[in-house]
Known about the structure:
Elements: E1 6-9, H1 15-26, H2 37-45, E2 46-47, E3 50-51, E4 58-63, E5 66-80, E6 88-98, H3 105-114, E7 120-123, H4 127-132, E8 139-150, H5 164-180, E9 191-194, H6 205-208, E10 214-216, H7 220-227, E11 234-241, E12 244-256, E13 259-269, H8 274-290, E14 295-299, H9 303-311, E15 315-325, E16 337-338
Parallel strand pairs: 10-16, 13-14
Antiparallel strand pairs: 1-4, 2-3, 4-5, 5-6, 5-10, 7-15, 8-14, 8-15, 9-11, 11-12, 12-13
Helix pairs in contact: 8-9
Amino acid sequence: xxxxxxxxxxxxxxxxxxxxxxxxxxxxxxxxxxxxxxxxxxxxxxxxxxxxxxxxxxxxxxxxxxxxxxxxxxxxxxxxxxxxxxxxxxxxxxxxxxxxxxxxxxxxxxxxxxxxxxxxxxxxxxxxxxxxxxxxxxxxxxxxxxxxxxxxxxxxxxxxxxxxxxxxxxxxxxxxxxxxxxxxxxxxxxxxxxxxxxxxxxxxxxxxxxxxxxxxxxxxxxxxxxxxxxxxxxxxxxxxxxxxxxxxxxxxxxxxxxxxxxxxxxxxxxxxxxxxxxxxxxxxxxxxxxxxxxxxxxxxxxxxxxxxxxxxxxxxxxxxxxxxxxxxxxxxxxxxxxxxxxxxxxxxx
Length: 349
């Protein structure tokens, strides 16, 4: 323990100081939206349970009255899809930072965060964090594949940070990719319905699946929390076949200069029928086109979604490392893990 250091819950009045601490510590521009006062308030005082004056998911370390460390907690529950076993408490840390001048403050915050749940996990993270994870007891799992699809091949011409030849070279590459990955329309038909707010009817969809993977529980409270993201761009959808609810999805469109970046934040169906998954992804692509997105990115959360992304012309654009800490061996060892952009704050970055 650092002499004189105190760890306390974040207060609303601390948000301006925390914003400056994170911006300076991570070396990002002052305009970075994820550290704005508005977004920090949403992250730490407007959780799935609704707005609160007391933060239960953000800890700050102070020395001589100044913030020298911070950790944000995203509480979740692990479940095995298609299984009625008791959920296992877990959490993902975000905005984890210790002052370089006070070595150990970050590790002490993480250890205190560990006490809040049985297990912990991380998707990606800074190079420094990933170097520390094994020493904290995290085990690396199979990497999470990231898929991308170009919707508007001429979008690079609107960028302002690339030269003339680089813009046209990138555009030519995108045109070739769009031509090479063109697809036919799916034979199945599904309906997307807008969901300004999700209801309890979606809560059982993960349990109804026959696919067995370890994933974090998604319910209407968590999805509605993301719909309340203060900078907008998030939309919710229910997916229906023959008037019957079979799934849900969350989309995000983010401006990046003069380009609009689309994300399939999450997509889940309670069926193993490949044609339904193909049709659902195709419908989400059409919706993102209608929202003027130039590209779309999605994580291959499940084997079914992975196959549907490939069928719809997505290409693998990289991977994210996945780490799980399970000291009590509470989770199955023989099942894969499936994560979406709903983990932590991946949806808004």
